[in-house]
Write a structure and sequence with these properties.
This protein is mainly β. The chain has one helix at about 15-20, and strands at about 25-35, 40-50, 50-60, 65-70, 75-85, 90-100, 105-110, 115-120, 130-135, 140-150, 155-165, 170-175, 180-190, 195-205, 210-220, 225-230, 235-245, 250-260, 265-275. Pfam families: Porin_3 (PF01459).
Length: about 280
């Protein structure tokens, strides 16, 4: 996270990445190419059951300005312009989805040694305004994330988070869904040499009085191959193996089984990402 506390989205990110990132039961293919002028073109395809989704993203960087234009199979166009370091520590992001012109949004991110602020506002007559802020250091940070619908005159999102980071240990506590869900997460580096880590997340929903517990681990078999596994209290066990067969090109196989219903077929997912 650097010197400062980072943004609100950084609270609990390490444990979320360990427990959920790269797991999938679909088939995904991504290929990135670069033109002679430095334009990056990324084509992605995702097969979810009988449904196939695809998109093409074109990225152009010019000094501190990055422009992304993505077109998907539903003829939606998403344009994003990012201006990095417009002022020290400041990042400006403008995004718009066409034909949904009401989706236009302006976002500002500001990073300081003791604060991380992100605010966004929809560019409409009655916009949704989002604000998140974090105060603290790279060791201890406290933050909040709030959304306000100016048309309805109501708060639509209100979250709060606390994180503690040590050399090999990260813990966080989040109060989400306007106080209805309390989540605690834990991430611990067991061996830096093999990127071995363990993590857990416990969530309690006050309205349903239901608990969700997920634990997971990762281990690097060799410099190019990583395995991950997780299980939750509902009996869903998932594992993956990811191999970097060439620089930045990854091949991932995932599998999920319901241990409480072993008669059901296991789910498998494949992901292939190619970069030159």
């Amino acid at each position: 996270m650097g010197k400062g506390p980072g943004l609100y989205s950084d609270i609990g990110k390490k444990s979320r990445d360990l427990l959920y990132r790269d797991y999938q039961t679909d088939h995904k293919f991504t290929i990135t190419t670069y033109s002679a002028t430095g334009v990056a073109i990324t084509s992605s395809g995702l097969k979810k059951g009988d449904l196939f989704l695809a998109d093409v993203n074109t990225q152009l960087k010019n000094k501190n300005i990055t422009t992304d234009i993505k077109v998907d199979t539903n003829s939606n166009l998403l344009a994003t312009v990012t201006v990095d370091e417009a002022a020290p520590g400041l990042k400006t992001i403008f995004s718009c989805r066409i034909p949904d012109h009401s989706s236009a949004k302006m976002e500002l991110q500001y990073l300081h040694d003791y604060a991380g602020i992100c605010t966004s506002v929809g560019l409409t007559a009655n916009p949704i305004v989002n604000f998140s802020g974090v105060l603290g250091t790279n060791v201890l940070a406290l933050g909040t994330d709030i959304s306000f619908d100016t048309k309805a005159g109501a708060i639509t999102k209100c979250n709060a988070g606390l994180s503690f980071t040590n050399t090999d240990l990260i813990t966080s506590l989040n109060l989400n869904n306007k106080g209805d869900a309390l989540s605690a997460s834990y991430y611990h580096i067991v061996s830096p040499l093999t990127s071995t880590a363990v993590g857990a997340e416990v969530t309690h929903c006050f309205s349903t009085n239901e608990n969700t517990i997920t634990v997971g681990t990762q281990h690097q078999l060799d410099p190019l191959t990583t395995i991950k596994a997780r299980v939750n209290n509902f009996g869903k066990a998932t594992a993956l193996i990811q191999h970097e067969w060439r620089p930045k090109s990854l091949f991932t196989i995932s599998g999920e089984v319901d241990t409480k219903a072993v008669d059901k077929s296991a789910k498998f997912g494949l992901a292939l990402a190619l970069k030159p």
